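Section 3.1 - Work completed
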Amino acid sequence: MGICAEVLVIGGGAAGMMTAVVAARRGLGVVLVEKNDRLGKKLYITGKGRCNFANDCDVETLIDSLVVNKKFMYGAFREFSSADTIAFFEGLGVKSKTERGNRVFPESDKSSDVIRALEKEMRRLGVNVRLQSEVREICMSDDGGERICTGCVLDTGEEIVAGSTVVATGGISYKATGSTGDGYVFARSAGHSVSPLYPALAPLDVKESAASDMQGLSLRNAGLKVLDARKGDLLYSGFGEMLFTHFGVSGPLILSAESFVVEMLSGTEVKLVIDFKPALDEKKLDQRLIRELEVSPKRSFVNVLKTLLPSKAVPVFARIMGVDPGLRACDVDAGLRGRLKKLLKEFELTVTGTRDFNEAIITRGGVCVKEVDPKSFESKLVGGLFFVGEVLDVDAVTGGFNLQIAWSSAYRCAMGLPG
């Protein structure tokens, strides 16, 4: 025997829970099905468990944060902005704090507070949450020549009949959290196109051993340019935190850069150009180098490097420059100083690939947004079928922006669902 609902939400992540809460606040009867044994598994690990759930910025900055399909989210961001997200969670008792880059976290630094607040609100509103309930297929019927989604069938054979079915299943990154691409299967079964899927906001592999030699070194204020090595075209530029690893590079700055180049890595040689001293232009850096060399002329050049670089970077720079360990500061000529200056401002690494979906924060690609109405997030192909969150072909750089896509798309969708 099946059950009936006005709204069926498939997926208990950020977008799914927000959809359920907003729809239930409107007085609609909501059933939320989640195949995991608990809600918000991916949300739980977001921001290293701290949950960077928003970015305290204006709507234009939200739009600029998007990597693809910027126009699609404009209306949703205007209807439910970052400020609205912060106020929404404040209303649920989640106090927040804002850190570097306007990233907003729970004051407690616990992602579980965000999840618990949504769970508590769903309980208060009477949302029927069905855990460990995997959807086998979505159901469709023909109503006078128009295809209509009528709900779903669970893997147990149980049918859930609904007036509106919202797919909020996420992507395929971090599969252990339940993101196994179910939504793409449902979309294709309804006749939707799904654009190619790539790991996005993922660390990068590099060719040079210099990265692994500096493994564990974190740069809090690095400049970065990403170039098409053959054409010399600038693909991305940014400033922020990055980390050298045993395989290459990671950190917020790198994750954002990866999103702009992931689709071209198979056919283009991509170079990373790292600026270790972004606060100094070349003239000021040259003056700094001269000053350091003149402070103690008898010092070794390697000891001079220690005043300019983190300790893990010193032997790498010395090796790349081919410097004799015994070279004294007073013996450094203008040519060698120029080489050091160039290396500090233009430290090059060659990208060989990106890490896979198990290390990617989000999925690039998804349900084609041309086939979804941005005013309601309803399918243009099948009535009563909606898509929200990461399952859509929309993504952004790191910093709380991708969760904002989830909150805003879910809110706008839920506010427009028929009663």
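Second construct:
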Amino acid sequence: MKAEDLIIASVDDHIVEPPHLWDAHLSAQHKHLAPKMLRDESGADFWVFEGRRAAQGGLNAVVGRPPEEYGMEPISLDEMRKGVWDIDARIDDMNVNGILASINFPSILTFDGGLFLGFENKENAKILLSAYNDWHIDEWCAKYPGRNIPNAIVPYWDIDATVAEIERVAKKGCHAISFCDNPSVKGLQSIHDEYWNPLWKVCADNEVAINIHIGSGAQAPHASMKSPIDAWITTMPISIVNSAADWLHLSALQQYPLKIALSEGGIGWIPYFLERADFTNAHHSAWTHAKTNFGNKKPSEVFREHFLTCFIEDKFGLANLEAIGEDFVAYECDYPHSDTQWPYVPEHLFETVKHLTDSQIDKVTHLNAMKFYNFDAFGMMGGRENCTVKALRAKAAHVSTEPMTQSGAAPLKAGEQPRRVTSGDIVAMFASVNAKDQERVDA
């Protein structure tokens, strides 16, 4: 197998919401609820939700920029590749990158749609949330069948509305939702509370996978404000481990065939995590009584029955695939964030998987993802031969991959001598954005 023979499905990418998102998906009586994107005197785009300003959501949407110009805040859509927010351009960027299919998370709405949790009027929030799902399913995903896997958000502050929304989107062909990895940190019930029982049942009944993205609830901590930001970036994917352990002990896993994806969480840590989970269960369950969560199985067995893990570049994890399980690993591109290897994913990916058998390569590059999400990309694309890196790149001869020049915010001030960027620098940038987001705006 060569790099051009790969078939690649990414289980973690992102959309920056476009200005027209709400135009076609609100009824006449609800048009007045549509959030608006405006531009301020500094050239920054921002949204207005419930009369409050919110940054347009492109934080870290730096795809296509030279690495030395990476920052945390392209401030307008003009400063991003068009594929970040436009579906036609996104397909071009997928083709030139050899990506067959992708699952996408929101940006301004937050990865799990948590922006709506902060709405004063929760009924309006539900209306806008459903409109987002309709746009995502009927426009973003439906325009190019076989290319984007629908991924809905849910009004998880209202369990009855959540069940109804999952049933509604499932009828539209959407069998994945994005969900908070730890709703208790947002003031909601723990996943172990019976409040969520209807959620587990409706997901099982409709074969809906649950994506829990890093940072959707629990946050990777900064060691200190003087710590190099590299330390935080290093640990960010692994921060999913606490939530992974929590979900592994979910008693509903014994009752339902739930599918849970640890989105953007990496895989190299999985072997020790499973070893530790098995040891803990064997060594401590006499007093913790945790065996009731696992029946006659080991935690590692339960994990492999229910969870999907993913990697961007994880040579150690792929070298120890047997300890993880070759049926539970998938690839992620993370377009348009700074970890993405666009437009050279096939070349990088092939170097990390070339030691595997062809069968294993197919599993971790696309088959596991397509099975997990019940997504028949081959059928929608007219056959496997149309899905390879070579076939897709043949459609992308017109796509420019020339680096863009950044004119947005950067961590260091203009004229400042080069130095290590710290957690404090990045936290200050976010604080500045958050302060503006508290402003009331007449729109």
